[in-house]
Amino acid sequence: MTVFTPLTPDQISALLAEHQLTLLHQRPISEGIENSNYLLEARRANGIPVALVLTVFETLPADSLPWFIELLHRLQARGLFVPAPLGGTQALMEVAGKPAFLVPKLSGHHLARADGTQLATLGSALAQIHLTQAPENLTAPPNPMQQLATLVDNHLHRLPGPDRARAETLLTRWQQRLPTPVLCHGDLFRDNVLFNGQQLTGLLDFYNAGEAPAEYDLAVTMNDWCLDAARRPVPALETALLNGYQHVRPLDMAARMRLPLALAIAALRFWLSRLGAEQPGEEVIGQGSKDPAEFEVLFRLRADAL
User: Fold this and answer.
1) Domain boundaries, position 296
2) SS3 category, 227
3) 172 shares its domain with 277
4) What CATH number corresponds to the domain at position 285?
5) CA–CA distance, 129 with 80 (Å, rounded to integer)
6) Taking a C-beta distance cutoff of 8 angstroms, is the pair 37, 287 a contact?
7) Count of structural domains within the chain
8) What is the pLDDT of residues 155-185, one digit of tens each?
9) pTM above the 0.85 mark?
């Protein structure tokens, strides 16, 4: 959640005033690569303190954001721990010429490593997302498969020749007989999930969400959560996540057969997106893009396993 758009206390205070809140403290959140985020401490009119996150959208067009507002409220209504924007259908705001949301800060912390119980819980939550109907009659953002196609068009040529040829072959296989899509998170990495002990307390950053094959979303999740310290796949962790998922939403045989290919495609997607991420400039607070080499190695491992 790198900060690309620096904001003054006065700018943030003006946003909070729309919700009858007073700013007490602010600090930028310096992880991630897409949007600008600030952790805020504020006070309600009755004196009760409240912790919030302000997200300033750097690339998503404003006309697609009502889709995300509706999505987050649908997921919240389903009982999932998601940060639904303040203000309901009027949640969309503007600051520094860019669209923005205010959402509650959820409790919990990010896990460096997850055990089997935590992964089963995560799998169950992912299945609940997949069972949720995507918003209709609103301008939808590019879905995960459209995002993949754009990344392929823009960055596949940057891969070494043998990797590029292998990727082209796997993409052709992947695009044959795509199944009926479901609502996917698209980016359910460890830094987008909060736990308090064994309890899952937060699912964050749905801004890559959209309809895609369920096995693709499972693969994205496995490719971050189910690796050892050397970033090698751990079958026992994959099984724990998959068992938790299937307890809520069983996969059919075709999806299970396609999962190994999905693991390679998901690794390719994040290799390409990290290659394409802009490097931090003078006005950027935080780490900016992440190392593409991590997914370069993982893509080769997943492709070799097919």
Assistant:
1) 116-304
2) strand
3) yes
4) 3.90.1200.10
5) 8
6) no
7) 2
8) 999 999 999 999 999 999 999 988 999 999 9
9) yes
